[in-house]
Amino acid sequence: MPEVGETGLTSEQVKHRIAQGEINITKDKSSRSIAQIVRANVFTLFNAIIAVAMVMVLLTGQWRDSVFGFVIIINTGIGIVTELRAKRTLDRLSILVASKYLVRRDGDDVEIAHDEIVRDDLLWIRSGDQIPADVEIVKTWGLELDESMLTGESRTVRKNIGDPAYSGSTAVSGMALGRVTAVGENSYAARLAAEAKIYKKTHSDLNAGINTILKFMTFLVVPLCALLIWTQMNTVGGWDAAISSGAWRQAVVSAVAGVVGMIPEGLVLLTSLNFAVAAMRLARQHTLVQELESVETLARVDALNLDKTGTITDGGIAFDRLEMLGVDAGDGLRRTAEQALYDLANEEQPNGTGRAVLDGLGERGIAASEIAARVPFSSARKWSAVVENDEIWYMGAPEVLISAMRGDHAAILERVNAIAGEGSRVVLLANADAGDAAGDIVPTEFANDPRLLPDAEPVALVVCSERIRPDAERTLAWFREQGVRCRLISGDNPRTVAAIAGKVRLTGDKTPRYMDARELPDDIEALAETLEHVDVLGRVLPDQKKAIVQALHQRGHTVAMTGDGVNDTLALKEADLGIAMGNAAPAAKAVAQVVLVDSKFSHLPDVVARGRQVMANMERVASLFLVKTVYSAIISLGVVLTAMPYPYLPRHITYVGALTIGMPAFILALAPNTRRYIPGFLRRVVAFALPGGIATGLSVLLCAWIVPHVMGWNLGNPADLESLRATSAIILFLMGVFVLSRVASPLNSWRGGLVAFFAACGVIGMFIPFVASFFALIIPAGRTLAATLVALAIASVIFLVCIVVVPKIGRIIPHETKTR
């Protein structure tokens, strides 16, 4: 293989490496694959049970009673289509977030995606870049790397020629040219995102609760199904008689009615559907959700740590004013000072302050003038200088310049501190006569050997301010209203950060309480106590940001962290929810669960509100589904113990379930809801479902036990059994409407209309011949109507009693007993 020179790989060499598979291809983790989506929606335990039950009913020839199976197929199809749409949206959005890299090929520098890099590429490593593949440094211009992703050490490491630099490291300063030595699965890049996610696995209270329900149902359904079949065979004369007479068909259908009722078939589908829809809606607002489960975490957030730069401010600096010093500062001196300031800022590559000065003074018509010599700004010196018209003009950190000057300038330093306390950035403009030193200053010599002259005099203070995002104040106000405690965390001066916090009303009408992070205690417990009384922290180190998150966890808070820099990475990983800006360093985006692609802080309320909507509504919906599970289990158990025919058909539960659970659940799941989620999903759902489930189960069983005796029905007679099942279906429907009313409350809005609409649909359906015939619905008349009305009245009383009594029993039982 020919050696790669400083011109980089040739096109032929790139093609050869691609053919050899030496390309930096990594799996896209932004969403599930199509196969995973189909498998997750189709191959579920309950879908298998439903499919078997459907086949059993079809074998009996009672195809109308197998409609429940087609409903599952439709729901599964909806789930797959919705998730596929969400995947397509998220994948498109993830392309916007993906970073580009600069490589040298054929002697030219070209920008390519990370998965187009091949082995032996000459890769430019620029400040802020996360290294996408392992490299060996060929040339360096002061490159320093943050290797905290690999070693956990937050200290930067300076790299020299010949040193290795591993993927996952991030350039924090300087620049280098490196030769790629390992790509794809052979480098850290392939495992970086996955390892970052594993570092703090997103916990889903919702999924944990639903999985517990599913495990319980697995142990309940199978044995109860066998018992139901055995019982129903006995009700038609035993196995031999049932098989010889063909009555086994009715026995199987009756057993399936019990099994189908116990399965919350739409719950799992609706959960994944809600996560996917939420992610898709957020994507339309340029918010990328990299883990669907993190939508739930959004609902639980009660503590939000905000990075100042890039979140509250947009990272830019605006020139505010030139504050002249001294009493004799007239217009002439101001114009001279403004011209000198413009020339000082007019470097080849001005920093943020310099660009702000150029923009601000340029709008006033000031342009560059001739200078004799220039000393560019240096972070080591903390000042810059120009020589013009036999004068030297300095611009730099006030404390550095004043420390070299003769005289007492304490008043100026006090003024600097006062301005900094207002949240502004201050630099000093000073002037010295080039002839005041031992000899006249030769401009070229001064440029080669720059120094601060002690006879320099302060002329003016240059005041710049960070540009505050226009949406920051109203966004923070929304979080205050929603009970989310926001803290501002920054590496800047705490007084400056506190001043900015005051401008955006971080704490409303109260003055933000600030603290220097260097004074924070090391002990986590003590830190947690301190944080309760602090709103703003300045001079924060990366490992302190992580410790702050850990301390908030100690107090039981669900913590979200925003950030855009490498110094935020550790805290983003430690937080329950990491939120990165779209213009963030690749390292920050790699570990965050949510990326605000257009870097707009104002999207955060939508993000949190969407999570709250999903969780609050899924709690409603899960309660609705679980009520059906509870009453179906109670009815099935009653049927087994009393050896009676099952009191309704599978088609009845399909009709009632569709109108009181299935369709309303889809609407309720997508309704607006901003209630903050509190852990304890399963406990609350069960506590809600038990009263309604017990009431419905008892009502149907009492009807099945008492009404036949009152009416003189012989349940061995198909016509009488049909009447009983029609009456039971009516009771089941009424109780379903009651439960739906309770779930949808308060009913003084559109929710009341929702309940009324589906209740009306159920009643109207009984009067439509085709619907009534298909679902075996009978309108009671005569003595049957009277008995049905009495049964409905008794069912209503039972429902009210259970709603009042069952929760009280739950409160009396000790906690340990309930959890067992």
TrEMBL record:
PROSITE patterns in alphabetical order: ATPASE_E1_E2
GO molecular function: ATP binding; ATP hydrolysis activity
Domain P-type ATPase A positions: 99-195
Transmembrane in keyword set: yes
Gene3D superfamilies: Calcium-transporting ATPase, cytoplasmic domain N (3.40.1110.10), Calcium-transporting ATPase, cytoplasmic transduction domain A (2.70.150.10), Calcium-transporting ATPase, transmembrane domain (1.20.1110.10), HAD superfamily/HAD-like (3.40.50.1000)
Membrane topology per record: Multi-pass membrane protein
Transmembrane region(s): 37-60, 66-84, 213-231, 251-277, 621-646, 652-673, 685-707, 727-744, 756-779, 785-806
Keyword RNA-binding: no
Compartmental location: Cell membrane
UniProt keyword terms in alphabetical order: Membrane, Translocase, Transmembrane, Transmembrane helix
Signal peptide interval: none
Chief location of this protein within or outside the cell: membrane
A single cellular component GO annotation: plasma membrane
Entry superkingdom: Bacteria
Name of protein: Haloacid dehalogenase
